[in-house]
Amino acid sequence: MLLVANRGEVAVRVLRAAADLGIRTVAVYAEDDASSLHVSLADRAVALHGPAPYLDVDQLVAAAEGCVAVHPGWGFLSENASFARACSAAGLTFVGPSADVLELLGDKRRARELAASLGIPVLDAAPGEFPVMVKAVAGGGGKGMRAVHSAADLDAAVEACRAEALAAFGVPDVYLERLMPSARHIEVQLVGTSVIGDRDCSLQVRHQKVVEIAPAPLLDPVLRKALHSAAVSLASAAGFTGVGTVEFLVSGDSYAFLEVNPRLQVEHTVTEMVSGVDLVRTQLLLAWGGDVDYTPLDRGAAVQVRLNQTSGGVLSAFGLPAGPGVRVDTHGYVGYRVGTAYDGLLAKLVVHGEDLDVALNRARRALGEFSVSGVSTNLEFLKSLLAQDIVGATTDFAATSPDSGQRAPLAGTVVAVSEDSVVLEAMKMQHVVRVSGDVLVSVGDTVAEGQVLASGAGESTEDVALADPAHVRPDLAEVLARHDFSRPEAEARRHARGGRTARENIADLCSSFVEYGGLAIAAQRQRRSVEDLIERTPADGLVAGIGVVNGSRIVAMSYDYAVLAGTQGLRNHQKKDRLFALAQQENLPVVLFAEGGGGRPGDTDHSMVSGLDCGSFHAFAQLSGQVPLVGVVAGRCFAGNAVLLGTCDVIIAVEGANIGMGGPAMIEGGGLGVFRPEDIGPLDVQVPNGVVDIAVASEEEAVAVAKKYLSYFQADTGVPREGGPLDSIIPGDTDNSWRCADQRLLRHAIPENRLRAYDIRTVIDTLADTDSVLELRAGFGKAIVTALVRVEGRPIALIANDPRVNGGAIDADAADKCARFLQLADAFDLPVVSLTDTPGFMVGPDAERTATVRHLTRMVVAGANLTVPFGLVVLRKAYGLGAQAMAGGSLKVPRFAISWPTGEFGPMGLEGAIKLGFKKELDAIADPEERKQRYEQMVAMAYEHGKALNVASVFEIDDVIDPADTRRWIATALAPSTSRREGKKRPFIDTW
Predict the structure, then answer these.
(1) Average pLDDT, stretch 470-494?
(2) What is the pLDDT of residues 372-388, one digit of tens each?
(3) How far apart are alpha carbons 428 and 407 in whole angstroms?
(4) What pLDDT does residue 923 have?
(5) Contact at 8 Å (CB) between 836 and 872?
(6) Are 858 and 852 in contact (CB under 8 A)?
(7) Residue 263 known to be catalytic
(8) Across the strands, what pairs with 174?
(9) Which strands, in side-by-side order, build the sheet including 345-353?
């Protein structure tokens, strides 16, 4: 296979030549170049990324996996020795000269030194001599070149050339050369050390060739032979192989060496037409080690004309000339979006004739057959240029002809002339050019871009009348009317049921919001009028955009139940896809108000059959683990809406909500019975089963909770938050805006009676910053509390055993809940603090019916693979595998493992351990009272042995502390990371 490490027209040329030889190909493309024709012509295409992807050696070599050769095209890395070496190191054949030859000839200074050593004239610039030409050491195509006529202009020209060369070729070096005015630019085409022909490339604009002629006309035979001989001498001395060109300037009978282009050139086509040698095919055959006959023929004359774009846009028309002797090389096509980030070459017109007069007439005729719309080009300029006598012209002909004066800023037709202005019309737009002096054009004239309009100076202007800034023009009035989304009747019905509209919730959530796709309407134009759709289906039932919450940007979207019951239509799927992509690209959290009935069967403006190729669910699921996903639901949420809701990291549900994978219609259609919507997934089902994380009383409260939840993932931004106690705190801040309870209360939080239960939530509220606790899934897996909290303003993920549930023993539901919470914390770099008071895992036949072996070890695996800072605080019991699970698998895993004075440790519950471990000894005591006393004595000894102070004495834990010092340990030992994560840390967060 062959990798073509280029783009546009040259990539198309090489890919087609390879296909003709039966060589399979790989194309590469930048993110903004995916629609280029070359991408579709290759057998495989690889996307490149980054600011300068076509100059990224590592990416290009990686893209060549499975290939045997790389063709560099022209420009970019085509003369880069490092690229050639990287290809060789990867076992790839570089289609071109060796890296050593590229290093010699690709550096124009070294090439000039070689030419001078062979006695070939060069254009040395003496110190202080002007005029000079500043030229880039690497590359070509007129980039990195400036003519300088005085010392005052030299520094600026050098800096400009360096910047242009760096952007185009990745090498900023430049050099000076004596300027030879009124010279002809003649090139000699080589294959190895064999001359294939020569061509005249003198017609240039801003040092970029626009017309090339082969063979070079009006060239004295003796001089032609001297140029060919000099080119061969250079190639032989350099050990040149492959296809390349040696360039000269010619003035009268003298000549001077310019440079060697050790690569394929844009204008190779004219030499192909007169020599009969396919130069690209020759390159490939040489690279593949085949036999190649490149003996040139003598076949008349050929002319190439370069059609360049002068603006970006979409090609709405692209008609190409044809006929005998006419060839067009292009990557353009109707519908192609032409960008402005790369070279402006759009097409090359190459014509052949038995002599030069025939070829030039054919070129003029073919230019007249071009039809290009959608982008501006130099077509009219080319027509004007070829209308003149260009044979034997010098390099300053196209740049200086016609004479100086006010030039046309674009090609067009003159529609009005006055003594101080010329009005040009192009693409149905009129452009006023202010002029002075003698006007040189008349109404009806077609002028080329750059053509002189008048002898004096002037400027292009637009007539802008002073206007009242408060005045609303009709076009704006129409737009403003369409953005009036008020629907009083629908809003009144919503309010009557105690609810809020989609836009009211978004407005409450976001301090600032820009809506995407607000003007979209349901895809039902085949069955309803546009007016009706505008009235009844605004935004296609999905309000979506980018907003600001707590000072940070998010993606916010809300299904509108007042529009087609919040169902998922074609347009709102497209809007979701658009916003999900933005969330992925810019790492924006997503808040989704998910009320709605799922898929919509009533859309008609499409050709879909099943709709299963919809990408929205996939795109949203891919955001899991990359950005926080918040789901809010009030009312009914069924089918596809429920899938999106269930994908979220947290689900906030309003009292009265119903959540189900299918609504009444789907259930009845499946023959599963007839149910009311209210019977499907009410909160008294979805809270205790763990689907809903937080149940709230109203939509207002739901929005407040969503903002609070997001704040835990935004605190590192340093942007002040809204809402008083939710103000963002950065560790080390001295504003003391966080506050907390008297920490001495923690000394009494655990009862002295070790058998007495207590309220773990009181402990958490006391330990955390005031009003900073947000508990998730409180109604599910109640043996463990999972909550987002703050300590000295810093967000923390906290897990805690609840001794009032199962005595703190961890059951299957609690383990699942904890495992998922740990994934959430790890995905978004939240430190974890574990408040441990557990006798271990729940055991017994009933427990095993809940698959505890898998569920409980799930928590162990999640904890063992945490990458965030993790701290352990033992409040009381730390027994067995359950305690190890709360510690991430071992007491040595956390950043700190400390205990309060009430802490007690053991490999299992001490009473059980005594009964099991000393059964024989106890059974041997015949007297029951004595046996009981001995048992209690053993238990007391075991408790003393497992006491926190004793455990610390053998350094199984780091310290036993005053409970009032717990916050100090957390704030100090769990220091925040100084590095910022990019992309995903985890593939996803388990939805369960």
Answers:
(1) 88
(2) 999 888 898 899 999 99
(3) 20
(4) 83
(5) yes
(6) no
(7) yes
(8) 136
(9) 254-261, 243-251, 184-191, 194-205, 208-214, 301-308, 345-353, 326-330
Query: Tokens at residue 693, please?
Result: 């994380």
- The radius of gyration of the chain from alpha carbons, rounded to an integer in Å, stands at 39
**Contact yes or no for 327/375 (Cβ under 8 A):** no
Spell out the alpha helix ranges (H) of 871-963.
880-886, 910-917, 919-923, 928-945, 948-953
Is the separation of the CB atoms in 538 and 521 below 8 Å?
Answer: yes
- Contact between residue 417 and residue 406 where contact means Cβ atoms under 8 Å apart: no
Beta bridge partners of 791: 794
Give CA separation, 448 vs 195, 452, 453, 896, in Å.
Answer: 37, 9, 10, 77
Q: Which is catalytic among the residues 7, 263, 571, 858?
A: 263
pLDDT tens-digit map of 496-538: 988 999 999 999 999 999 999 999 988 889 999 989 898 889 9
Cβ within 8 Å of residue 706, ≥6 positions away:
509, 549, 591, 630, 632, 652
Secondary structure element (H or E) that encloses residue 255, with its range: strand 254-261
How many Cβ atoms sit within 10 Å of the Cβ of residue 88?
A: 14
**Could you tell me how many residues make up the chain?**
992
pLDDT at 733 over 50: no
Q: Are 30 and 8 in contact (CB under 8 A)?
A: no
Q: What is the pLDDT of residues 789-830, one digit of tens each?
A: 999 999 999 999 999 999 999 999 999 999 999 999 999 999
pLDDT confidence of 464, banded at 50, 70, 90?
A: very low
According to DSSP H, which parts of 330-473 are helical?
Answer: 356-369, 379-386, 397-400
Query: pLDDT digits over 275-329, tens only?
Result: 999 999 999 999 999 889 999 999 999 999 999 987 778 999 999 999 999 999 9
Q: Which helix (H) or strand (E) is 40 found in, with range? A: helix 37-41
Residue reference for tokens 């250079």? 234
More confident site: 723 or 41: 41
Where helices occur in 833-982 by DSSP H, the ranges are: 845-848, 852-864, 880-886, 910-917, 919-923, 928-945, 948-953, 966-973
Contact between 546 and 516 under an 8 Å Cβ cutoff? The reply is: yes
Mean pLDDT of 81-108: 95
How far apart (Å, rounded) are the C-alpha atoms in residues 37 and 12? 7
